[in-house]
Amino acid sequence: xxxxxxxxxxxxxxxxxLPSLAVVGATGAVGTVMLDxxxxxxxxxxxIRLIASARSAGKKLMCxxxxxxxxxxxxxxxDGIDIxxxxxxxxxxxxxxxxxxxxxxxxxxxxGAFRMDKKVPLVVPEVNPKDIKKRPKGIISNPNCTTxxxxxxxxxxxKKFGLKELVVSSYQAASGAGQPGIDALHDQISKVAGKNxxxxxxxLRGVITDLGxxxxxxxxxxxPWAGSLKEAGYSSEELKVRNESxxxxxxxxxxxSATCVRVPxxxxxxxxxxxxxxxxxxxxxxxxxxxxxxxxxxxxxxxKKEFPTPADVVGTDPTWVGRVRQSLDNPKAIDLxxxxxxxxxxxxxxTAQIAELVAAEFSK
Length: 364
Prior knowledge:
By secondary structure, the protein is of the alpha/beta class.
């Protein structure tokens, strides 16, 4: 008689705990977009906690079809939180991101507080996703919206042709200056509406006396300035494009020259880019690389007057590229026009994508 053997019963694997998420600055312009993005993307989180200033505490906001109550910013607000996305001004992030990290959260910060910190990675998931692992401070930084409007396309071209130099002019929307910028442009447009535009143009400063956050009237105008004054006459926005592009691409000696201009558009930054490479790059080859690139929408048919404008791009996620041309003077250079919604990919979406990469670590 043979002895029966019984196989040990395999225990079912316990379900992985979904990480908890805090959205800090949930009631702001970028925070509002963030809640919309979280509601539309695949859900990779358990609890979602909304955090804002004390004056916003108690407000009810919808996220993923659920009404959530905003809680006041405090150290205790981060208890039990695995990932914290910060959509707040630099000074708030500088103070509170380290506190959140000490309470155990991985911080994904959308401000400029940590972008140039050597111990904080500056990440664009389509370009340098592996850098999220290098976070000794528990903080990952999100690039400036102007840089983000072009860097996905530039990263794709760099991989194919070897980027050497960038000469950039930006056309930045009023929302890049936050809600005060949006409010100022709306107010200024109302001031000139219904008036004789020829007369207004001759005395624009007389008609528009409240400049808001801008150094000159923005309605019916362009202002060759964004940010604060830095060395050698450059603005902070211009230096961000230079320094952040170098860090994201891992090219500390990349030549970058930028001029930032504010234009009377509510949302979506645009840029003209003259890019020089180590290899010959034809228009067709550049278009092919861009067409295949993740996060890029090639819209380039000038024969039919088809190219991106802010009116086409606002509310969408990709970096849109058009007007691709090989330089007439240098076969290793191309010129192109780029548009990106500065509140989506330029801020909230990239932050959300970074946070999703961190969330994936919890399932391993």
